[in-house]
Amino acid sequence: MLHAIVLFLHSYQRWLVLGLALAITARSLTGIRSERPWSASEDRLHAGFVWSMRLQFILGLLLYVLLSPLTDAFFSNLRGAMKVGELRFFGLEHALMMLAAVAIADAGRARSKRIADAKARRRRVCWTTGIPLLLMLAAVPWPFMPTKRPLLRSAPAAAQVTTQIAACPPTYQSRCSACHGANGRGDGVVAAGLTPSPRNFSEPTWLSSRSAAQLRQVIRDGGPALGLSPLMPPNSDLSATELDALVTCVSSFASASSANGAQ
After folding, report:
1. Mind listing the pLDDT tens digit for each residue in 23-41?
2. Residue 14, exposed/middle/buried by CB under 10 A (0-12, 13-18, 19+)?
3. What share of the chain is helix, strand, coil (3-state, %, to 5)?
């Protein structure tokens, strides 16, 4: 649930950041040609932009370090993840662009406050806001991009994912759902960019040809060790109890699908 809340806040906070960045860039650019002094309203607008960026960065850091299954999937198999556009974008490219944007904006705020001349200060503010604005625009997963995300994220839909996987251990959400989906249908948030596609656990036929021991081995040792998908990372750090819980979880998806089909 925490992941859904932070993701929702992060998604909407970006519009405030982009709006303030656009406003202060435009105002500084038009003010460079004037003789008016640096105003209190310009200073408040610039400060508001930088502080909104800091808040956005904190939300993004929470997702990146603690909450997002995308970064878990990225770091669990770096070599394989670098070949998958969606994992590479959110695990590396998005993070680097946003880090650079925050660093430039923060440095621009600190240095501009020491400039007495209004024109020189506006020039500093203009480019130390304009460059972060361009970086942020490039870092947003727009709907027309392969890594597309909704412009306006739905909070109920985000919360629903947590409810749907409540029968499985937390490990499934953190390590498996990004690829295999909340209901094990192979439709996780990164599934569209994966080749081969993640296994659809809700298909009853595949489970009948695999024993619990085989499932346990795939989860523990990963795909490459067994000649399967190179993107399936090993989970050798999990305890026997956790591995058994995941086997039960994965098997339950097919069982639930069979039960629904029989109704």
Report:
1. 999 999 999 888 899 999 9
2. buried
3. 70, 0, 30
Verdict on whether the full-model pTM lies above 0.85: no
Q: Which residues contact 195 (CB under 8 A, 6 or more apart)?
A: none
Is residue 186 within 8 Å of residue 180, measured between CB atoms?
yes
Six token digits for residue 63: 């997702």
**Cα dihedral 135, 140, 145, 148 in deg (nearest 10):** 160
Q: Which bin fits 184, alpha (ψ -120 to 50), beta or left (φ > 0)?
A: left
CATH of domain 157-262: 1.10.760
List the chain domain ranges: 2-139, 157-262
